[in-house]
């Protein structure tokens, strides 16, 4: 079996493009994130590591001096991994999941200390909330159902549970309730505070009237001690709660936030007031509610972040035993910052990048000199002499700038295209509404912008459209992003991706479902036609764009009905309609991107050509039926509605991933019966006669279909193909697996024509013999040991060189690299020994001259004899 | 006006034995009322038997019977005018068991001559109808077939076979030294001989 | 970035299939726990981040487990079925195991075989699965060393004669040099094969009479010249 593995290894290495160890880090980078922070644990020692629990179900340890990630534990992505509660101090102890909730305790080193299930069973139809108190080592679970509240206290030191009887509380679900000090449960109902002491459950809720008739009140439980704050727009009331009820302690006006911290057994209240636009002043009150003037501080958020969302304060002792504090602040755009009392930012983390939804590679503009040279191709020809003069002038200018000292402070310094087109910028849009432009070579953020009124559509993504590329100087490049407006309808933002300047910001009255690019106008700006499925309307953006268009549209409805429409100059006409298999629901639709296909066919072993069926109007639809446990695959021509090919996999289930390109379609699914991941490839060929130059859906033949399936011994999380400018380089299918590695699978391995019993003809063609399992050797793992957690998408873009493709994988982490599927056939290898060759050449030249002189001298001597 | 035509249709593929006999009603439209097409009955297609032929996945004969309606000369004229006026000929196929319909269209000059392909899912549910260039049959039925599974059986057989063969013949590279290096020794010997011949001769 | 060590460390995965008491899950199915241990002795721990960075993935992340200090792990709330347990670490390659839990709670572990999934390649209880070592992510640079040159047969066949030609003349005195030169010339004359007739001679003899005399004359000229040289 091992020899077989070696054989397969060598076959698989036919086009393997493994890295050398000294190339690590030269052109790739990895950014690790944790997700938007929800819970903070300040750890055991001041200046040590802090622990955070995030909305992405990740528990992480962060160095409190530098903000760097020390370790992280990534839980399940669904509701079984949701972190309900995290202890506030000491070892991180957390409650995750809900069915059943699991209580885990970790060492500060990252090892699991212990793990146990919460023994209480939730009553039917109840919502759960869990609270941990590390000091008393108890977890309080509160289950609220429509009429009552059940409280369960679990002490994990003694493993004892105490569950209460249902306590009547019809208000509990509708109003805001919280638990303070792990012993008092407080609810705000209209204008009363209802207080329940866990030590005395029999008493039930004790009501205390709030002496105010302000409306829109909010309840906030403070983290330390038995305090709650009731807040209205104008005022904040601080109440102390106990078994006897609630007692008003103080009233404050114009507070933006209130919290507290405990240090040396004294509880300090922290009041935050907004001072300037992005600054808060913090005043600290001691246990007698008088202000401690030394602890007054001010925190100002840097410009790259938006407003403060939550504030957590931890007390610490300075060297002279004075009290001080540190504040961990989360912002609306998922940023995390730590401030010292004096207002200095100790560190900050940009966690919006953990939720990237859309990625677009943007070409950089040419430098001014090169643009000047390129102008000669776009301008009208003005005679040979003037062109010559112009060329010489530009080259003299180039020479001059070469010797000039460069000014690093100039705007967009360095943002010009390099020789091979490797340097691009990556535009990213994130779920929280923040846009980023990242330099792909260094990974630095060039600019970022937070948009409070644009959010992804219901499928979790925005629509990003390049309306004008950077190739048309002096017109600025335009990239438009369409998203859902929180107030209904859609919103479009057009901006210059290189500088970040906003060119247009509009509200559109439709809910955008699909879009299509129009022809460019005389300023090279492409309009976009937007389609709304619910109202069957189209609008064109920008409104004055070229309105003569003819587009074919495919919509697949939820009940398995696929319709084809013709969108022509504002009119919508339904052309065809088909039904997917009975009882099935659509899982995904894949169309081909814009790319060049270099060769028209494959050369077979007997030198005949098998022509590819390249139908640009082909869409692949995969649907799934849960009852029949089947996966249905269709290849449909969008213009005519004909089902070119259909097939079914029995006992198969998702997750299903697809790649549709050139004349092939590759998809992956899980075979339930054999419990393995399978990947299937469909190739379409026209036959042995050369087809017409222009393809027409109305007059095309039914293609010859080659279809075969392979086994992949791993779990695929995402699939994408590499793409190059001219399509000459062979393609790699990049498969991200559950462990965070990105596998490179050459398309030649996923060839359905691979023969089971190869003949001479097959060998002549170069087909790899069929082996059911595709083994990917570790050299073909694109990101070697830089695992990318939870890959959500992979974006590939062509570079300036034909052999190289740029790859960005995004998910919880961001990883960028470049890959050369057919090795770097068009540039010298990167360790080409220039100096060695020069030295050898020089040595040989000198040796030649020396020996010539020597032999001349010897001949002379011989002649004299 | 109803002409009964019994036609043997070519079944493209079949995967399971079917006991159902799906009946499809075909309607066509060559004029519009406003923007909605007016549907006229064109034919009724009954698929009488879908037989299972496991050995030959490609073809199975089956009975398809078609009852089609004759067109009046005026309707015929309207159909012929469609291509001239750039309008499309639309076809609707209705599955009489469930009542759902599928729609297709063509711009062909003579749409009534084109072959129709009815695509069915494995249970006989109508999925779509396609226009194909005119062929021998009027109606073709294409039933979804199973996708190919990874062929592990032949692979396992071959592996076992190779393993057994390898155990039988254990070849080693134990040829002697001369056999391995004769390529280098022979030129050396020749050179020595020549130089040796030259030297004694010279003396 | 951690550098890969030069030696391949041996790791083993010890999987203990233990039947724990069945717990009722929300769906009514009994839920069991998968337990296991990595067989790493403390002095072998060349990696400092095994406890931090290792994740146990069941079925590609359906269930997730973490390591305790003694390198053991537990995965709870697993309903009966067949699962693929993968221990994932960026640098170390652990062998995946298939764990089947029957509806009565009996657990067994077997080797992963995707081509023949029903093969029962049992991993014994308590189990020790064969190690897979470190992930070998990088290709080796082709290096050259001096030994490649010295021991190559081609070097001996071609380089040695060149050396001889260069070295021998230096070792001989001038007379020996002259003598050797003469010998070499003689060898060349002798080596010129007289048996093969010159093509031009053949053609002229075939076509006419005069050439043989000329050829003879030239031959005698040559012979005289050779004799003259010999007498020098």
TrEMBL record, chain A:
Entries under Pfam families matching the protein: Beta-prop_EMC1_N (PF25293), EMC1_C (PF07774)
Keywords: Endoplasmic reticulum, Glycoprotein, Membrane, Signal, Transmembrane, Transmembrane helix
Entry keyword Amino-acid biosynthesis: no
GO cellular component: EMC complex
Keyword Ribosomal protein set for record: no
Localization per record: Endoplasmic reticulum membrane
Domain EMC1 first beta-propeller as annotated: residue spans: 19-125, 133-351
Parts of the chain that traverse the membrane: 832-851
Segment forming the signal sequence: 1-18
GO biological process: one example: protein folding in endoplasmic reticulum
Mode of membrane association: Single-pass type I membrane protein
Limits of the ER membrane protein complex subunit 1 C-terminal domain: 661-864
Quaternary context: Component of the ER membrane protein complex (EMC).
Family statement drawn from the similarity comment of this UniProt entry: Belongs to the EMC1 family.
Name of this protein: ER membrane protein complex subunit 1
Natural source organism: Galendromus occidentalis
Record gene name: LOC100903550
From TrEMBL, chain B:
Pfam families named among the record's database cross-references: ECM10
Gene Ontology CC entries for this record: EMC complex
Residues passing through the membrane, by range: 181-198
Signal peptide: 1-17
Keywords in alphabetical order: Endoplasmic reticulum, Membrane, Signal, Transmembrane, Transmembrane helix
Main location as per UniProt: endoplasmic reticulum
Protein name: ER membrane protein complex subunit 10
Gene name per UniProt: LOC100903162
TrEMBL record, chain C:
Membrane topology: Single-pass membrane protein
Stretches assigned to the ER membrane protein complex subunit 7 beta-sandwich domain: 51-155
Signal peptide from the UniProt entry: 1-22
GO cellular component: EMC complex
Keywords for this protein: Membrane, Signal, Transmembrane, Transmembrane helix
Subcellular location: Membrane
InterPro entries: Beta_sandwich_EMC7, EMC7
Domain of life: Eukaryota
Region (Disordered): 207-232
Primary localisation category: membrane
PANTHER family in the cross-refs: ER MEMBRANE PROTEIN COMPLEX SUBUNIT 7
Entry similarity comment: Belongs to the EMC7 family.
Name under which the protein is recorded: ER membrane protein complex subunit 7
Organism lineage string: Eukaryota, Metazoa, Ecdysozoa, Arthropoda, Chelicerata
């Amino acid at each position: 079996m091992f020899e077989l593995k070696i054989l397969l290894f060598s076959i698989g290495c036919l086009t393997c493009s493994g890295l050398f160890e000294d190339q690590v880090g030269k052109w790739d980078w990895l950014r690790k994130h944790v997700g938007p922070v929800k819970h903070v644990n300040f750890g055991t020692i001041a200046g040590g590591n802090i622990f955070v629990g995030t909305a992405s179900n990740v528990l992480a340890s962060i160095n409190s001096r530098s903000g760097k990630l020390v370790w992280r534990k990534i839980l399940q992505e669904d509701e079984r991994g949701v972190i309900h509660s995290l202890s506030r101090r000491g070892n991180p102890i957390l409650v995750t999941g809900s069915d059943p909730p699991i209580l885990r305790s970790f060492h500060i080193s990252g090892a699991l200390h212990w793990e146990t299930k919460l023994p209480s069973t939730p009553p039917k139809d109840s919502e759960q909330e869990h609270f941990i108190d590390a000091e008393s080592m108890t977890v309080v679970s509160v289950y609220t159902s429509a009429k009552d509240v059940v409280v369960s206290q679990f002490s994990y030191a003694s493993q004892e549970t105490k569950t209460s009887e249902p306590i009547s509380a019809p208000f509990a679900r509708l109003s805001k309730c919280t638990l303070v000090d792990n012993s008092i449960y407080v609810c705000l109902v209209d204008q009363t505070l209802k207080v329940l002491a866990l030590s005395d459950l029999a008493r039930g809720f004790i009501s205390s009237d709030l002496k105010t008739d302000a409306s829109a009140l909010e309840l906030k439980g403070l983290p330390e001690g038995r305090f709650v704050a009731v807040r209205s727009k104008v005022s904040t009331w601080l109440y102390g709660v106990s078994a006897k009820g609630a007692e008003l302690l103080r009233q404050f006006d114009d507070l933006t936030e209130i919290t507290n911290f405990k240090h040396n057994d004294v509880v300090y209240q922290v009041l935050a007031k907004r001072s300037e636009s992005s600054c808060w002043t913090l005043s600290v009150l001691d246990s007698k509610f008088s202000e401690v003037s030394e602890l007054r501080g001010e925190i100002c958020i840097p410009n790259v972040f938006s407003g403060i969302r939550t504030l957590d304060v931890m007390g610490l002792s300075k060297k002279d035993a004075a009290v001080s504090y540190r504040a961990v602040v989360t912002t609306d755009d998922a940023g995390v910052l730590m401030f010292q009392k004096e207002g200095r930012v100790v560190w900050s983390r940009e966690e919006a990048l953990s939720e990237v939804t859309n990625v677009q590679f943007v070409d950089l503009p040419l430098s001014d000199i090169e643009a000047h040279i390129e102008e000669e191709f776009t301008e009208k020809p003005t005679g040979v002499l003037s062109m010559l003069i112009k060329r010489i002038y530009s080259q003299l200018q180039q020479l001059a700038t070469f010797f000039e000292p460069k000014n690093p402070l100039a705007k967009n310094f360095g943002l010009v295209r390099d020789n091979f087109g490797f340097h691009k910028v990556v535009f990213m849009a994130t779920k929280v509404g923040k846009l980023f432009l990242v330099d792909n070579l260094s990974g630095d953020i060039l600019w970022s912008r937070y948009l409070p009124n644009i959010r992804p559509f219901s499928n979790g993504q925005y629509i990003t459209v390049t309306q004008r590329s950077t190739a048309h100087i002096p017109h600025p490049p335009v990239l438009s992003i369409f998203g859902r407006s929180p107030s209904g309808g859609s919103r479009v933002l057009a901006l210059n991706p290189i500088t970040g300047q906003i060119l247009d910001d509009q509200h559109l009255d439709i809910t955008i479902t699909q879009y299509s690019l129009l022809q460019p106008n005389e300023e090279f700006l492409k309009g976009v036609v937007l389609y709304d499925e619910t109202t069957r309307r189209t609008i064109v953006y920008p409104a004055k764009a070229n309105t003569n268009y003819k587009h074919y549209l495919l919509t697949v409805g939820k009940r398995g009905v696929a319709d084809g429409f013709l969108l022509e100059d504002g009119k919508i006409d339904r052309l065809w309609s088909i039904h997917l298999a009975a009882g099935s629901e659509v899982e995904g639709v894949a169309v081909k991107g814009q790319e060049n296909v270099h060769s028209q066919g494959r050369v077979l072993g007997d030198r005949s050509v098998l022509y590819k069926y390249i139908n640009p109007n082909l869409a692949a639809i995969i649907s799934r039926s849960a009852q029949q446990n089947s996966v249905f695959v269709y290849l449909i021509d969008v213009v005519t509605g004909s089902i070119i090919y259909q097939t079914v996999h029995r006992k198969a289930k998702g997750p299903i991933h697809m790649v549709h390109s050139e004349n092939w379609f590759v998809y992956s699914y899980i075979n339930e019966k054999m419990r393995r991941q399978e990947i299937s490839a469909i190739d379409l060929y026209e036959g042995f006669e050369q087809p017409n130059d222009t393809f027409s859906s109305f007059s095309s033949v039914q293609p010859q279909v080659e279809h075969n399936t392979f086994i992949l011994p791993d779990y695929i999380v995402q699939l994408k193909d590499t793409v190059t400018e001219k399509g000459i380089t062979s393609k790699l299918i990049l498969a991200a697996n559950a462990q965070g590695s990105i596998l490179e699978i050459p398309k030649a391995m996923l060839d359905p024509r691979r023969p089971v019993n190869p003949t001479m003809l097959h060998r002549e063609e170069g087909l790899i013999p069929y082996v059911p399992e595709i083994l990917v050797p570790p050299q073909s793992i694109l990101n070697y040991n830089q695992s990318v957690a939870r890959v959500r998408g992979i974006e590939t873009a062509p570079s300036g060189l034909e052999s190289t493709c740029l790859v960005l994988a995004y998910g919880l982490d961001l990883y960028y690299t470049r890959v050369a599927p057919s090795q770097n056939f068009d540039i010298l290898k990167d360790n080409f020994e220039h100096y060695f060759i020069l030295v050898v050449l020089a040595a040989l030249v000198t040796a030649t001259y020396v020996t010539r002189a020597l032999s001349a001298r010897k001949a002379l001597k011989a002649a004299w004899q | 006006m109803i002409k009964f035509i019994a036609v043997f249709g070519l079944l493209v593929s079949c995967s399971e034995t079917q006991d159902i006999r799906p009946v499809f009603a075909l309607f066509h439209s060559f004029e519009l009322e406003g923007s909605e097409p007016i549907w006229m009955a064109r034919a009724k297609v009954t698929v009488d038997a879908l037989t299972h032929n496991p050995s030959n996945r490609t073809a199975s004969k089956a009975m398809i019977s078609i009852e089609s309606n004759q067109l009046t000369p005026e309707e015929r004229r309207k159909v012929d005018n469609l291509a001239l006026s750039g309008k499309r000929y639309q076809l609707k196929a209705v599955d009489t068991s469930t009542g759902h319909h599928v729609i297709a269209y063509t711009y062909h000059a003579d749409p009534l001559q084109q072959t129709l392909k009815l695509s069915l899912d494995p249970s006989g549910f109508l999925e779509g109808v396609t226009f194909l260039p005119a062929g021998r049959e009027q109606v073709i039925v294409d039933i979804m077939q199973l996708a190919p599974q990874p062929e592990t059986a032949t692979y396992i057989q071959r592996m076992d076979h190779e393993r057994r063969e390898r155990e039988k013949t254990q070849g080693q590279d134990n040829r002697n030294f001369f056999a391995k290096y004769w390529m280098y020794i022979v030129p050396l010997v020749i050179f020595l001989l020549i130089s040796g011949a030259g030297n004694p001769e010279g003396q | 970035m951690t550098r890969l060590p030069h030696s391949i460390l041996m790791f083993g995965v010890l999987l203990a299939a233990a039947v724990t008491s069945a717990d009722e899950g929300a769906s009514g199915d009994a839920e069991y726990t998968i337990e296991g241990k990595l067989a790493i002795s403390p002095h072998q721990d060349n990696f400092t981040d095994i406890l931090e960075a290792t994740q146990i993935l069941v079925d590609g992340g359906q269930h997730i487990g973490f390591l305790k200090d003694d390198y053991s792990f537990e995965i709870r709330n697993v309903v009966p079925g067949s699962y693929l347990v993968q221990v994932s670490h960026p640098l170390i390659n652990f062998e995946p195991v298939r764990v089947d839990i029957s509806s009565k709670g009996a657990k067994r572990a077997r080797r992963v075989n995707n081509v023949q999934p029903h093969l029962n390649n049992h991993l014994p209880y308590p189990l020790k699965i064969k190690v897979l070592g470190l992930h070998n992510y990088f290709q080796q640079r082709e290096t050259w060393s001096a030994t490649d040159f010295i021991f190559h047969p081609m070097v001996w066949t071609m380089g040695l004669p060149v050396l001889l030609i260069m070295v021998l003349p230096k070792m001989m005195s001038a007379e020996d040099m002259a003598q050797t030169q003469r010998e070499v010339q003689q060898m060349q004359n002798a080596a010129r094969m007289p048996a093969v007739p010159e093509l031009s001679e053949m053609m002229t003899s075939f076509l006419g009479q005069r050439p043989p005399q000329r050829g003879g004359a030239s031959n005698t000229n040559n012979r005289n010249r050779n004799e003259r040289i010999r007498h020098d």
